[in-house]
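Troubleshooting log. The previous structure file for this entry was overwritten by mistake, so regenerating from the original sequence record. Sequence copied from the archived sheet and checked twice against the printout by T.R.
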Amino acid sequence: MEIAILPAGAWGTALAVPAAAGGHLVRLWRRQPGWAEAWDRGHPALPGLRLPENVVACASPQEAVEGADLVILSPAGAGLRETCRLVRPHLRRDAVMVTVTKFIEPGTHMLAPEVVAAELPEHRGRIVVLSGPNFAEEVAAGLPTGSVAACRDLALADRVQESLMTDRFRIYTNPDLTGVALAGALKNVIALGVGISDGLGMGDNARAALISRGLVEMARLGRRMGASPLTFAGLAGVGDLVLTCTGDRSRNRRAGLALGRGQSADQFVAKTGLTVEGIATTRAAWQLAQRLGVRMPITEAIYRVLYEGLSPLAAMERLMARPRAHELEEVAEAEGV
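Regenerated output below.
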């Protein structure tokens, strides 16, 4: 097969490792003048990585995607529409589009596959979401990793599974496109909250409570949007949630830690230069929940910290002071029982 990955940031470049392992021709492109000529078969954020000869650097999006059977779109959320527009004129009509972007678009409240479908209507039925507990550094290093390929057409999910799966990068398939995409976006919001709690020194108990209750409200919104509750119990749900809430490489957790320690979100982004998807997704998720009438108290608390000036300590105290509730009743509601 011929596989295109763009842009070749840390995650896109890391995905070239399993893609190349099957002997496929993998073409990378990134928006940086002269990068293809100066490329040293790696990425600055992935120390020690040297990709094999069947991975090539391309000077333009056209060169990367023309003739490709599989096109992996790996930009940050804010760049997804533009990336789709760059590749659209050059795509094969039968190409499979794979999105690995985890966000809810501000304003439209669209998930990543919905954005891709809007920008690439000719490929609307050929969109697969790849998501799961995947740090780029570990995938690039060949450490054991599990992921999920989701598509309503399971034959296309199977195709992505066959193309990218290795003995170190295990992929499961799932027909719940909405649930997998939504879980990947919402876990970033909950990770901000866990980071805030840890930054405030609230302890391991609070962290565990936020993760488990965060999962409940993720599934609650998913159910309202037609997703399967079982998806949130899998790799794209609880798996990615636990990794992002506890892993030291998690940008959203690190941003939450900074908030809990007194920095603002703007200060953290300016200091680190990192893209933190959970910041914009928090607003979009809260607005979406309001529109659909879904209770999401943790998301609401983080929204008020980020956008209404509520102090992190006051937000955590408000969560603890909520009215008494029956856990099983809420879990049953989230699962549609």
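Strands lie at 2-6, 25-28, 55-57, 70-73, 96-99, 127-131, 145-150, 169-174. Archived copy saved in two places this time.
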